[in-house]
Amino acid sequence: MPDNFFMTAERMHDSSKNLHSATHYHNACYLAGYVMECYGKILVQKAVIRNPKMYSHNVVNINTDLIAYLASSSASTAFWRKYIIDISLECPAMLRGWNPNHRYEDAILWNDHASENYQKEQEKCFEKIIEMHLDGLI
């Protein structure tokens, strides 16, 4: 059974928001990063750029491939253009600071300020996921 990045993003998004509201900032950041990762993996899977599993958790490489895909002039690129954001511009805090291995580190890394930024940035990814869902693509 293929990975369900949509449902995973939905779960992580909701849990991250709840954890942030409960001032559990470290775990809120941890889960918010997965929303960004799922967003990218949905696109690379649907636009048939490559197998999402090849990326592991490397959102930098996912973003690089999505931006390169946008620069191409294939017919499918035009179709996917409205769903693709440049994560380096729209989600700089998460792209720079998220790594699932940080879950083992002291909670001071992902504090209230970081969590606030992550919440805003995950919303940008999640809005695009919802848009793809409403358009019947996922």
Overview of the structural elements:
There is one protein chain. This protein is an all-alpha fold and 138 residues long. It has a single domain (5-134), classed as Four Helix Bundle (Hemerythrin (Met), subunit A). 66% of the residues lie in helices and 0% in strands. It has 7 helices and no strands. It has helices at 5-21, 25-46, 59-71, 75-80, 87-90, 92-97, 112-134. Helix 2 (25-46) packs parallel to helix 7.
Overall pLDDT score? 93
**Which word captures the global form?**
globular
- State the total count of DSSP E strands: 0
> Percent of residues in helical segments?
55-70%
- Series of H and E elements: HHHHHHH
Low-confidence spans: none
Largest sheet: none
The CATH class, by name, is: Mainly Alpha
Q: Return the domain count.
A: 1
From the N-terminal CA to the C-terminal CA, the straight-line distance is 15 Å
Percentage of residues in DSSP E strands: under 5%
Figure out the total of helices: 7
Q: What CATH architecture label applies?
A: Up-down Bundle
So what's the oligomer here?
Answer: single chain
Structural class: mainly alpha
Task: Considering the chains and any ligands shown, give keywords for the structure.
138 residues, 0% strand, 66% helix, mainly alpha, Four Helix Bundle (Hemerythrin (Met), subunit A)
